[in-house]
Structures are given as structure tokens and as C-alpha cells.
């Protein structure tokens, strides 16, 4: 790809503005801003937003933002002037963020400005700026620490005096405390959790394989989006196309088997079914992020940048390990990462799907109704999560296939009550329906 710094269509001021603005933002702000949960909405100045969008695009491709790559995207999208103007650079300094430009970087910028033969020395100027970055790691760390301190001052209150708590309690008792909640797809779950899933909570959704965890997660995300929230599904267990078929079956009413056969080329959809699919997909607003090979930290970084209100992760046990850590250490760290994602900054609700142990299913091959001790690979799931929600269905004693009747049950529910709802799984339309009295008797038997 052609280096944008060598394209003759650019003016001298374009070069200068792009290099200075790119380096200032990329090196001083990008990583620390992500770590503190800041996304593009935090940056009010248009220059910041153009820069952030360019860096986000590069990061999403698995790359690391550099002067060249960021400038290239700005030039491609026609945002170079807006991102590199003098006013934009001024806004990126201490008055806005409490972060000073590193001295060595200023020296490099001065060298660039004094360069009369700019076009002939653009590559040299870039090297000067890159060298400045390498010479001042301590100053960059200091800049990041200053940004972190600024962010801390903008986050939620951390210290509550007795007077604060007394006032808050009386207001809540007399008028009801407003805590933002997101509705679960089953009414009984909302009753048990006293209104639904809360912002700032981590929910573990667990169960045996093929018992419907993914289906319940998709239903929860769809319902929470319908209430005006931005939702995302981070997927590492199946391909987005496969998951989309399941979502389409639920939203359109066209059976999953019909959709799968049409996708395989076995037959064509009827005009009526095709119309139903198109209508149903207009109600699909879940962002699916393919995250195979991602660590928990990378998922959290991406979710913060996109400012999602509700985040689903399917599935915990397939997260990538780093630094030669043992499996349980990786998953312990992941649970802590997701808990911080739920609670930091403005907060969000995070739902993580997880497997259960097979230990109690060894003799018969059938999974008993799970409890918290059955969570697989890490004790942190039950200890750190605010809520633990199990999905379990009866199994055929001969084939061991999961039957339709089952239960969705809170084994831990912070601020609510334990209990669940008997359900009937509709596999063709990928949804759980509330059970009847006869279903409850069948489950008890």
C-alpha cells in the first residue's frame, strides 16, 4: 500500500498536521483511554472523534495504530484537515486532559516545523517523530498516568459518608431507589431479580452442552436491545453465520430446519418464508463480534471502546490463554476482567456463558440439575459473579439427548431471590416458552 506521506497530492500543512495530531493522540492517549473505559463519545472535539475512529478501525483488524496507518485512514476518509488543524492540536494538550506533551516529542515537532523542504524530507520527519516516541518511554508513562488521574475524577463517586448513606436510604424507602434494570426474557426471572438484570452486574449463564445457554443469551440480548440499549455478542464457539440462522428462526417464525436446508441448497425458501425472514431480520440489532483467539482483556477493551450497555460472551472456556498460564489461572483472570468491565465507569451488564463439570454425569451420562459447585474450571465464577443462572433440561435415558422440558434457575441472585421457571424449549424457533402445570409435573418426575 502506498505510503500516504509520499503522495504528491498532499500539501505541506497536510503532512505537518497529520503527523503531529496522529502522534499526539496515538502515543499519549489511546491505550490509557481504552483501559479507563473511554470511547469515541468521550471526545467532544471533532478532531478527537476522527482520530479515534481511525484507531478503532486499525485495532479491530488486530493492528497497532501508527502515524502511517492512522494518517492513511484519515486521508482515505477525507478527514485529514479536520483531524489535524491547529485548534485540534491545542485541544489535545493540558487544558483538555491535564496531560503535557513530552519534551522530546516537542523537539521533534519543532524540527518538523523548521524543515523548509518538507515534501522531500517527509520520511525523515516521520523518523524524527518515531525516534521521539522511543526516547521518552518514561514521559509517555507519566502522560498516561496523568490521563488516568483525570479519568478517575470523572468516574462515579467512590466514598460515601454516613450522611450520604442515610440520605440515600431515606430517599429510597420513601420514593423508591432508581436502579437501571434490563428485562430478562422470562417473567419469573424478572420477579426473582426484582425487576431484571442490573447495570454493573456480572451474570454467569451456565449449563450442560446443548441445553440452550446460547438460545437464552440471544433472547436476553434481543429483549435488552428493545429497551433502547446497545448490545453485543462476543462469539468464539460458532461462526456468526450459524448464530444468525438461529436468531433468524426466532425473529421470523421460520423454522430453523427450513433455514438450514435452504442455506445448504437443498431447497429454496417460499416467497412467504423469504418475506418473513426479511421482516424478522429488521428486528435483529445485536452486534456479533467474532472473537475466536481473543483474550478476555481484548474483549473488554473492545466493548469499552464501543460503549455497549449489555455484553454477552459465548463462551468462557474458549478464551485464549497468554504467558503460559494454567487454564484455571487464565479463567480466573477472565472472570475478574469481565467483572471490572461490568462495574467500571458508567457500568454495563455482562453475561458470560460457561460449561458445567461432567463429574456428576459419569455414571449415567445424564447431567443432574447443576449447582454452583458444578461450574467448570474456575471457582471465581461462583464467587465473583453477581448472578449465576443455570439452564438445564431433562435427558433421554437411552440417547442422552436433551428433552424439551427443563428449568432456568437462579442459583445466585444479588439483591434478589433464588428460584427459577419451568420452561419448554422450542428448538425449531430457538426460544424458551414458559412451562405448564403438566410440564412442572414431568420435570418433578
TrEMBL record:
GO BP terms in the entry: DNA replication, synthesis of primer
Enzyme class: isomerase
The protein's Enzyme Commission number: 5.6.2.3
Annotated Pfam families: DnaB, DnaB_C
Signal peptide residue numbers: none
Reaction(s) catalysed (UniProt annotation): ATP + H2O = ADP + phosphate + H(+)
Cellular-component GO terms for this entry: cytosol; primosome complex
Domain SF4 helicase: 175-439
UniProt keyword list: ATP-binding, DNA replication, DNA-binding, Helicase, Hydrolase, Isomerase, Nucleotide-binding, Primosome
Keyword Isomerase tagged: yes
Keyword Nucleotide-binding: yes
Alphabetized SUPFAM superfamilies for the sequence: N-terminal domain of DnaB helicase, P-loop containing nucleoside triphosphate hydrolases
GO molecular function: 5'-3' DNA helicase activity; ATP binding; DNA binding; hydrolase activity
The family this protein is said to belong to: Belongs to the helicase family. DnaB subfamily.
PANTHER family: REPLICATIVE DNA HELICASE, REPLICATIVE DNA HELICASE DNAB
The protein, known as: DNA 5'-3' helicase
UniProt source species: uncultured Gemmatimonadota bacterium
